[in-house]
Records
---
Amino acid sequence: MLIADNLWGLSALVLLVTGVMRAFAGFEKGTDYYLHQPLFHLKMTLFVLILLLELAPMITLIKWRIARGRGGAVDTGRAKLFARISHVEALLVLLMVVAATGMARGVTFA
Ligand code: HEM
């Protein structure tokens, strides 16, 4: 589970760095386009929601890693809750992909 968590973290970092470069470093349609594209705002809102949902699991998993490193016991009492949170996060990532494709194709609601 901790390996999977590391891979999700790495994936989030890569998507964040490449995403910011694509949006604001002139690789795609330019900063102005994205700042005025409603689906970009939706995509970023979903991204922030995922980050907020991930706060508690992330902090707890850091504590678990520290406890394991010291050879101590880990309280897995909230593991089920974290699994449920991951499912919600996975759904939000899927919605981000939908928003991204609409944003890339210039879909607006005007
Ligand atoms: C979980 C995180 C993310 C997912 C799943 C995701 C998904 C995608 C996908 C599927 C595309 C391709 C759209 C297409 O060409 O049809 C895309 C493009 C793009 N993404 Fe992301 N993205 C993520 C994070 C970010 C972040 C954090 C940013 C910016 C801060 C960003 C900015 C962009 C930009 C600028 C494009 C190019 C759109 C275009 O072709 O005009 N992405 N993303």
---
Amino acid sequence: MTTGAEPQKFLGRVEFKRGLEGAITNETRIGYIDGEKGWLVYRGHNIEDLAEHSTFEETSYLIVYGRLPTRAELARWTDRLVPARPIPGYLIDVLRKLPKEAHPMSALRTAVSILGCHDPLADRADIANCERIGVDLIAKMATITGAVMRIRNGEEPIPPDPKLSHAANFLYMCTGKAPDVLSARVMDANLVLHVDHGMNASTFTAMVIASSLSDLYSAICGGIGSLKGPIHGGANEEVMKMLLEVGAPDKAEAWVRTAIQEKRKIPGFGHRVYKAYDPRAKVLGKFSQRITKLYGQERLYQTAKTIEELVVPALGGKGIFPNVDFYSGTIYYSMGFDYAMYTPIFMVGRIPGQVARVMEYLPDNRIFRPRAVYVGDLNVTYVPIEQRG
Ligand SMILES: CC(C)(COP(=O)(O)OP(=O)(O)OC[C@H]1O[C@@H](n2cnc3c(N)ncnc32)[C@H](O)[C@@H]1OP(=O)(O)O)[C@@H](O)C(=O)NCCC(=O)NCCS
């Protein structure tokens, strides 16, 4: 029995948008997106500039500490990251025991949790401790990902090579071969492009967890869990399936025409924030052209480019342009990564952004506590179980 009470009696009439669209959570100096202009900025620097001139090491320092490092600061930063790369044997043992069919993102999440269990200082919620754990996880995420990939493929994990850059070492730990210069460069730029992206769902998840003064391991586990979702980290897989289905540039026109007629969403296009060209897609498009050529997969790039040239004139007026996922899949596919590894690579890039935003929020922390509009019943009579049938 219910009263059917009107919800607005209790909360007042509340205007809200689902998914917290447009809600402001905090002030930040870390990053800025102007979706109308197609800008993405890290600490004041345009992303195109960073992707062209910077490295993952430099950009992660920039995002965490607020400015590009001097030569001496970069050397000290590298001297912290490199020794933090190896992962302990007990962690590799756990990764080996996971079911083969476990999603690699679930394995990443588990790995961070295990590291947290073994850290006796994990729960000290001060900024210095947060930074200590953050730096460790920025360094280790690539090693964890490499180990997860190799164990999945029935291969032995490869220990990090301290002589290689973060990106080159990541590829080395995945493939067992020191990468060529172009592949290392493209992976480096790709990680830079993924470092931060405003209050995206996974970064916000990490911040919400940390705002209860829980430990950073828990926050990053949550960040990984959120990124795992197919409408967050996994759209590039759909792009690859589309490109393989289309098969060749001369098949693109008929495919796109049908997709538009049927009002289907074309993977890798459109974005909640960008209503102009996603600047990350521009950079990745150029790298895709070079890397697909290197690996003999030019047709993939040409098919993607043709689709772009057909979709933009048709849908650009509605603000539909390629997003970051449109070309990233062609790069990973050419390099030989399985679809399931695409989102873990995203996480290797995104971890500095999550750490930086948690660290920025912590000194003036306030627990996140939004409300929901209650539209349910009130004063429902309790019926004893014997009488409920
Ligand atoms: C990213 C995405 C979820 C953003 O969604 P959103 O902000 O809620 O936008 P909407 O779904 O409301 O779309 C607005 C309009 O653009 C159209 N549209 C959006 N994305 C489209 C796409 N990829 N292809 C064709 N049309 C698209 C919608 O059909 C809608 O048209 P309508 O107004 O005529 O109904 C959506 O663009 C999408 O699903 N893209 C494909 C998946 C993808 O690439 N995701 C990765 C994002 S980084």
